[in-house]
Amino acid sequence: MVSPTPDADRRARLLKDASATLRGLADVLTPLGARFAAAGHELYLVGGSVRDAVLGRLGTDLDFTTDARPEQVQAILKGWADNQWDTGIAFGTISAAKGDQQIEITTFRTDAYDGVTRNPEVVYGTSLEEDLVRRDFTVNAMAVRIGADGSQDFTDPLGGMDALLDGVLDTPAAPEISFNDDPLRMLRAARFVSQLGFALAPRVHQAIVDMAGQIDRITAERVRAELDKLILGEFAIDGINVMCETGLADRVIPEIPKMKLEIDEHHQHKDVYQHSLTVLQQAIDLEDGDPDLVLRWAALLHDIGKPDTKRNEPAGGVSFHHHEVVGAKMVRKRMRALKYSKQMVDDVGQLVFLHLRFHGYGEGQWTDSAVRRYVTDAGELLPRLHKLVRADCTTRNKRRAAKLQATYDDLEQRIARIAEQEDLGRVRPDLDGNAIMKLLGIPAGPEVGKAWTFLKELRLDRGPLSPEEAEAELLAWWAQQQ
Q1: How many CB atoms lie within 10 A of CB 39?
Q2: Quick check: keyword Transferase in the entry (predicted)?
Q3: Are 284 and 390 in contact (CB under 8 A)?
Q4: What pTM does this model have?
Q5: 439 vs 53, residue with greater confidence
Q6: How far apart are CA 351 and CA 344, in angstroms?
Q7: Computed from CA positions of residues 381, 386, 387, 392, in that sequence, does the dihedral angle turn out positive or negative?
Q8: How far is CA 56 from CA 18, 98, 122, 198, in A?
Q9: Does residue 120 carry a pLDDT above 80?
Q10: Are 374 and 364 in contact (CB under 8 A)?
Q11: How much is the pLDDT for 347?
């Protein structure tokens, strides 16, 4: 008797675990399978749902394919789903919700592409195999037939399980055909590397290198969505490396690979690019809950201003003066081009702008005024700024690293002590606009704004003042303005 190979054992174990996972969804799968069977139609769980079930990471989104047409699917779901909607009906997809499960059911498709956009001309297919071969990667082209009694029948005509066992992303058809049909699949490849920890098949890697320019056909909004999924992945560093190695990053966010040209001023890293990846990983390690999109983008982009501010110093060193100012502007420009929200642009830009300020703290020489300004300028971003500054310590000198962390500990302790005495989260003048107008005898207008700003600066410098002190200072200032 021939002993099973390790891969065969692992395959059997993964399929057994996946089957157990799906049995846990019997309250959804069994009635759904019964309804489709009663209507004379086939139903298959497919795509990322099967892949994630095999990997033990299935969420609450379930994808199905069927030979039933959309209007037939709607009729089958009627009276069973909690609600359903047809926003994807042009692509053959009906969506529904049942309990906490989000369901998408798409009619078998073969599709045809015009080579200009990524939107296919939807052509309904007649078989599961036709539907699977049009999918992006073989690991997403496995299916499980759901029987009338909820039974499961795993099918894998394109070798998706082999690819999954090998940790490889390959395309069902030739990658050149797949990426020409939909160039976004190239960026999805990098995203799946980040999410799954897989590697690209050599032919997929080469096809992306050859076709990277095709990503220009994709809208900024679609690119942004994939970039966010990539940077939120468990293996974000690997995904970013794939983008840079294949040339995709040069097309969608060229500031990242451009950092490869610059050596950091301490010569402790291969280049600023590698330093930035280290900072990103250390920021990820500091997360205390769900992945933090703002923190991760700030960590990755915090030094993108260095290439444009590099200066060779007389003694042979390198400096990057004001790279945080230049970098913040670059961040805002790139993120606007990628159609990020104003809040996202402002948050990431502000973190990049502030990431170096701590290095003026020295041995704790900051005045309380400087501490207040640090907290005020960070605002609600302060917890993220704490993480970013700590992550930015990448020196290999253990003594220096420990000293930097201890110094930041001291700053945080000072912030906490001052916060016990005053509301650092909401530093405002000691007199409001109405009080200013009444005291100075002036109407609403620019002069009130100037007076308000004076009092705000005074508050930052000296901390809370009594109303009498604030009024005396304001009157003295006003007299100087006349």
Answers
A1: 14
A2: yes
A3: no
A4: 0.84
A5: 53
A6: 11
A7: positive
A8: 7, 21, 32, 15
A9: no
A10: no
A11: 97
